[in-house]
Amino acid sequence: MRAVEVKNLYFKYEKEWVLEDINFSLEDKEFMAIIGPNGGGKTTLLKILLGFLKPSTGEVKIYGKPPKDNSQIIGYVPQHTNFSLDIPITVFDIVLQGRLKKGKFFYSKEDKEKANEILNKLKIYQFKDRKIKDLSGGQRQKVLIARALVSEPKIVMMDEPTSAIDPTGQKEILDLIESLEITRLVVSHDIKILLRDVDKIAYIHKKAVIHEGPKLNIPKDKHFCEVELIEFLKDESCGI
Ligand SMILES: Nc1ncnc2c1ncn2[C@@H]1O[C@H](COP(=O)(O)OP(=O)(O)OP(=O)(O)O)[C@@H](O)[C@H]1O
To answer: Residue limits of the ABC transporter domain (predicted)?
Structure first.
C-alpha cells in the first residue's frame, strides 16, 4: 500500500484555483521536499494531506484512507507554534500533548515513557522541565518535532521546520529529519533541503512538477531554475 496517493487534485478557497491537477505518490518511508514560490499553494497542499481541508475535486489517500480517517498515524509540525509563549508550559507538557487522543483526558505511564524516550532521541531531554519560552528557536522547533513524533506516526508532515533558525540549528533539524525512518513530507524555503537525501521533490506553483529518482541529484529542470530561492543552482546546475 502506498503511503501517499494524490490523484487529479484541484482546490480553491474562493473563485480561483489554488491547486490544479496535482498528481503524485509516495512509498512507505520516502522523503519528499515540497518547495515553490510564496503563495504557490504548499501550505494548502499540506492542509489537504492532513485532512484539515477537503479537495474541491480529486482524491487523496494516506495509507489507503482519506486523511481524516487516518489522523492517528499522521504527525504534524506546524509552521507556527500554536501556543502562546507567555503560557508557562514546560517542554515535557508540550511533547505529551502529542499523545492526546479523542476522549482521552489523562496521560498514562506509557505516554510519559514515550515522551522521555523521544526527548532523549532528539537530545533535548535536558530541557524537559524548562518553559518553552526559555528555549532557542532551534530547540523550540525540536520540541514541536518531538510532539509530532511521540505518537509514533507512520508519516510526518512539516511546514517550514527550519525557518527562523540559525545555520547550525538548521543543519541539526535537517539531519534529524533525514534520519527518521518514516514517511516524510517537508515544506521548505531552505534550499539546503534539496541537497539532502530526498526521494522526491515537488515544486508547487498552482500545478506541481515532481522530480524523483533512486538517488536524486540537484534537479536541472527549468522549473527549478526559475525558483528564485535556488538562485545558486543556475550556476551549479542549470547552466544559465
Ligand atoms: N484561508 C484562505 N482563504 C482564501 N485564500 C487563501 C487562504 N489561505 C491561503 N489562501 C491563498 O491561497 C494561495 C496559496 O497559499 P498557501 O499558503 O498555500 O501558499 P504557500 O505556497 O504555502 O505560500 P508561502 O510560501 O508564502 O507560505 C495564496 O494565494 C493565498 O493567498
So the answer is: 4-231
